[in-house]
Amino acid sequence: MAFASIGCGHGPDVTGDPIAAGTRTQGEEAPFGGDLLVDGSTTVFPVVQQMGEDFAGVYPDVKVTVNRSGTGSGFQKFLRADIDIAAASRSIDPNEDAALRAKHIAYIEIPIAYDGVSVIVNPQNTWADKLTLSELARAWTSRSTVRYWSDIRPSFPRERVSFYGPTDNHGTYEYFTEAIMRRKNDLREDCQKNQEYNAVIQAVSTDKDALAYVGFNYFDENKQKVRAVPIDSGNGGVEPSSETIANGSYSPLSRPLFLYVSKRSYDTKPQVKAFVWFVLGDRGEQAIADSKYVSLPKALRANVAQNVMAEKTGTFFASVRPGSRLDDLYSRVAHD
Amino acid sequence: MGLMPADNGLLRRRKRIDRLFHALCFGAAGLGVLLLALFLYKVLIDGVQRFSWTFIVSNLSSRPGRTGIWPAVVGSTYVMGLTGVISVPIGVAAAVYLEEFNTRKSRLTEFIQLNIANLAGVPSIVYGMLGLAVFVRWMALKETVLSGALTMSLLVLPMVILITQEALRAVPKGYRDGSLALGSTYWQAIRYQVLPSAAPGIFTGIILAISRAIGETAPLIVVGAAAYVSFLPHSLDDRYTVLPIKIFDWAGEAKRGFNEDAAAAILVLMIVLLVFNSLAIFLRARARSRR
Questions:
Q1: Chain B residues within 8 A (CB-CB) of chain A?
Q2: Mind listing the pLDDT tens digit for each residue in A197-231?
Q3: pTM
Q4: What is the rounded radius of gyration, in angstroms, for the C-alpha atoms of chain B?
Q5: For the segment A85-95, what is each residue's pLDDT rounded down to a tens digit?
Q6: Which fold has domain A18-114+255-335?
Q7: Which of A205, A320, B149, B227 has its CA 20 to 30 A from that of B217?
Q8: Does the ipTM exceed 0.90?
Q9: Which of residues 253-292 of A touch B (CB under 8 A)?
């Protein structure tokens, strides 16, 4: 988990609180143009789009492009040095990290927010008051024998369960299977997978016996149509909400979202450096809140900002289990 | 043979089948129109309150209700215009070669002909993969207007070629023979006799090809048309987005309100399509009246 600090750049042109740096430059004359290319996670896209939009509002000469090819595709483009920033709904995996090292592409890792995965049912489903992790695993694993709700818990009615979820190119799929089944790509075959979360919401809202999982923001926007099942990971049922995701009690189904910034772009393109500090500032916070993601706690944000300030490269999260808290990881790194 | 009562029954039965067949055919014709009308109705209901001049000429935004569509309109127009500029000369030249100069069919040209016919039926996503491999990566054009337009040109070329060939075939042989008999060269016969007569048909081909291309989403997603750009593309190496991609994107957004934006964008796409088509129809009509 070592991170090599390549060079010792001068850091952003700020004094004092680095978090305020993003907003500080707002009133000034835009001193640069050029392009800023971001690609990656569909989940992170709405946030980065808003950040890019607001950034372009402050620096109209910068040509901001944000795409959403998916986390994996984003890292591939990052590896080809086609983009400045890769957005990711999971941390970089060891293979991707090794490939980047082999090509001498250094990157700065920036966790920007938390997201939750919500397990949802139809509002008419009155029986599923909460689900434990083992019940979820039993229902969702590829070796599952669950056909009726009563197979999940005997007190549930004997109704056929219909499973829905996103397709496997979604970071949410990967995250859900790893968090619940503790294994990659382990999900029952007869789950109706859809590329679009809205289609999953639509299906669950019309199917009384549905069981599905979606990104927290999709649940949050559709609270009239679907109900989130509280998750019991040993301390009673916890409903997904901004609070439970932020304080870590909605575990293990909350996850950090990341930006991976090319060190070379950060050093050579002033617009990239400015964007990074814009993201870490108040306008970035606003974008996260507007997209219904959950901001990192203040102390952690300061930690992250300090790392960026010191231009630390490499990943802190190479082999992190789903459900781990960033706070813990950062404090561990600090003690190393 | 006199008309027996039994025959009367047979006649009634045949008449009944006739009416049934009529009704079935009418149903088949009406179904498409009905579905289209339903779809248009739904889109109008959803999109009409968002649809305005401000919506058309405003920048893209992550805030539903505040977003515009202008960069996508410009992107679509730019990519499609460039696609036309690239594919029409090449397509028409290829068709002229295959129809006019290739009088003794050789193995090679027959092979080319067969391939063009096949290419016209290849799913568009395959062109996207090809464009990604050749233009974006190998030629290192990156995800720009140029690589998008080149990919779309590949997509529309077979259609332009095939329809131009049809149009050329419809020109009476006497036009060529007459022209050649008067001492003109092949170039002159084609330039002054054949092409002008075939022009209306060729324009129809271009209408159809561009109409197909303008709604294409899949190949452009593959070659990296962006989901968000903060600027208007104005050079060949600019990044871009197009209308169908924004529609696709907004339809899948979590934030409520983007549904209405998607519907309004569909209306804009239809208007752009109508403008493109009427332009081609106008050109066709002019070519026809000149004859």
A1: 59-63, 142-143, 224, 226-231, 238-239, 249, 251-256
A2: 888 999 999 999 999 999 898 898 899 999 999 99
A3: 0.81
A4: 25
A5: 999 988 888 88
A6: D-Maltodextrin-Binding Protein; domain 2 (3.40.190)
A7: A205
A8: no
A9: 287, 290-292
